[in-house]
TrEMBL record:
Its EC number is 4.1.1.36, 6.3.2.5. It comes from the Bacteria. GO terms for biological process: coenzyme A biosynthetic process; pantothenate catabolic process. Residues 15-227 are annotated as: Phosphopantothenate--cysteine ligase. CTP binds at residues 103, 113, 148, 162, 166. It catalyses: N-[(R)-4-phosphopantothenoyl]-L-cysteine + H(+) = (R)-4'-phosphopantetheine + CO2; (R)-4'-phosphopantothenate + L-cysteine + CTP = N-[(R)-4-phosphopantothenoyl]-L-cysteine + CMP + diphosphate + H(+). GO terms for molecular function: FMN binding; metal ion binding; phosphopantothenate--cysteine ligase activity; phosphopantothenoylcysteine decarboxylase activity. This is Coenzyme A biosynthesis bifunctional protein CoaBC. The chain holds residues 203 to 429 of 435 of the full protein. Binds 1 FMN per subunit. In the C-terminal section; belongs to the PPC synthetase family.
Length: 227
């Protein structure tokens, strides 16, 4: 019921959300990416807007419609996502990093399509991408910073480690191998780990409800922006 006519408890907040995968070119027609659908990040953007926030959604390539009242910035590579997010950081009061960012990229993408009949490479040399969230944590002033942790095992300990290592206020963990959870699904089973050490394991629910549960926790932890 709360999700259908939510209270305007994010009025005055400017929420910067990232969503979807990033794509790293191998050549002009091929890329490295991951299985992110963008559904969780879009649900967060939609929920924040419904609760009265101004929302900018920096999104990698997805098949989803931009939620009502949300301003979208479309990107493909990790570098483009990094630039768009740092460019909006000073504007924002809350940053929610739901994107599944590529950790590696081809070190030397080919300028032309690699042909199968030529001497095609049998291995791909990779280099690390920038860790956007760590960089945002370094640059932030008063922004409330939320990260995600996509894991296949030891969810709680990995989520706690990411909270500490990246200097975040809140981490949303999900086991991407759990049935009905993670990539592509309309539902998610998340845990919330916050900087006070509180750990909440939520049951399996729609990504829409999970987004509202996450925003409820943000509202509890962050001082209200309204004067
Ligand atoms: N993230 C990021 N930039 C990257 C990689 C990840 O900003 N280059 C962000 C994600 O958007 C997420 C958080 O960092 O909010 C954790 O991402 P995750 O992939 O779970 O962890 P990593 O730190 O990348 O470590 P690993 O993949 O090895 O578990
Ligand atoms: Ca990663």
């Amino acid at each position: 019921i709360e999700a259908l006519s939510p209270r305007q408890d994010f009025m005055g907040e400017r929420v910067l959300v990232s969503a979807g995968p990033t794509q790293e070119p191998i050549d002009p027609v091929r890329y490295l990416s991951n299985r992110s659908s963008g559904k969780m990040g879009y649900a967060v953007a939609e929920a924040a807007a419904a609760r009265g926030a101004e929302v900018v959604l920096v999104t990698g390539p997805t098949a989803l419609a931009i939620p009502p009242g949300v301003q979208a910035v479309a990107v493909k590579t990790t570098e483009e996502m990094h630039k768009a997010l740092t460019g909006h950081l000073a504007w924002s009061t809350i940053v929610i990093m739901a994107a599944a960012v590529a950790d590696f990229r081809p070190a030397r993408p080919a300028g032309q399509k690699i042909k199968k009949d030529a001497k095609f490479p049998t291995a791909l040399e990779l280099e690390p991408t920038v860790d956007i969230l760590t960089d945002l944590a370094d640059r932030r002033t008063t922004q409330f910073l939320v990260g995600f942790a996509a894991e296949t095992q030891d969810l709680v300990s990995h989520a706690q480690a990411k909270l500490k290592k990246k200097g975040l206020d809140l981490v949303v963990g999900n086991n991407v191998l759990t049935e009905g959870s993670g990539f592509g699904s309309d539902t998610n089973q998340i845990i919330l780990v916050d900087r006070t050490g509180r750990l909440t394991e939520l049951p399996l629910m729609s990504k829409r409800m999970a987004a509202h549960a996450l925003l409820d926790r943000v509202r509890e932890l962050k001082p209200d922006n309204r004067v």
